[in-house]
Amino acid sequence: MRLKKLEKRIRKSAWFQKTTRAFYARYIRFVYRTTRWTFHGHEAFDADLAAGVPHVLCCWHSRIALSTFYRTWEDHPFYILASEHEDARIVTSEMVGRGLRIIWLKTSGDNRVAIREAVRAVRGGALVGLAPDGPLGPREEVKPGAIILASMARAAVTPYAFSTRWRIVLKTWDRFVLPLPFGRGVFLMGESFTPPARLSQAALDAQCAKLAAALDAVSAEADRLADGG
After folding, report:
1. What's the pLDDT score for residue 202?
2. How far apart (Å, rounded) are the C-alpha atoms in residues 182 and 179?
3. Of 222, 168, 149, 150, nearest to 190 (Cα)?
4. Which are the contacts of 84, defined by CB distance < 8 A and separation ≥ 6?
5. Is the bond leading into 138 cis (omega within 30 degrees of zero)?
6. pLDDT along the chain (229 residues), means of 10
7. CATH architecture of 2-226
């Protein structure tokens, strides 16, 4: 028990957070630069982005490491819905360093304020990205936030995944995919869909199931392509 408390104190310490954030940012950018990337299924999304069509971009929590490296975002505001948890701040600090903006989610409790902020961002022309099984799981189980956000903002939901030929799947709750350098890499966009403006519980459940199936499909296909399939 004492060791667990000590570990928690260390993980939350300013020194640990600063050091880990700096290392993670350098590492993940190194992986991106040394990977040979191909892009699949992106044409419709790119056209919508250029035309100002609003989107909510979704990937499984396990795929967040390189999820925002699809393109540079200087010309288009990109908000990420992310947990306030200290581990999430390691990843999001790198994103902030590239000009992305963060909308913070509580790890427990009511996140309606964050959802409303995200709706305003989308209605204002921004792209919003999130992991619908975050911030703390269950793994690969879509929570309704992404669908509700897209419905309220009248935006399309786009399932998305990255993969690399060399990768490690960590033994974390989400089975985090840690990309390794010097191999093939894939960014894959799935087919977008727009939830109805009015959602009954049955319709919401159906939309969540549709998103889950789409995320499973793009993740599996990204792995297949990265592996040379």
Report:
1. 98
2. 10
3. 222
4. 104, 105, 106, 107
5. yes
6. 68 81 95 98 94 95 96 92 86 92 85 91 95 91 96 97 98 96 98 96 98 99 95
7. 3-Layer(aba) Sandwich (3.40)
What is the domain partition of the chain in residue ranges? 2-226
Query: Please, how many CA atoms are within 13 Å of residue 70, restricted to the half-sphere of its CB?
Result: 27
Provide the whole-model pTM.
Answer: 0.92
> Quick count: other Cβ atoms within 10 Å of Cβ 50?
10
Give the count of alpha carbons within 13 A of 37, CB side only.
16
Q: How far apart are CA 61 and CA 137, in angstroms?
A: 8
The alpha-helical segments, DSSP class H, found in the chain are 2-12, 14-33, 43-51, 86-97, 112-123, 145-153, 201-226
Q: What is the pLDDT of residue 3?
A: 66
Task: Say if CB 56 and CB 155 are below 8 A apart.
Answer: yes
Give CA angle at 136 (132, 138), nearest 5°: 70
Asked whether the beta carbons of 167 and 179 are under 8 A apart, the reply is yes
DSSP classification of residue 106: -
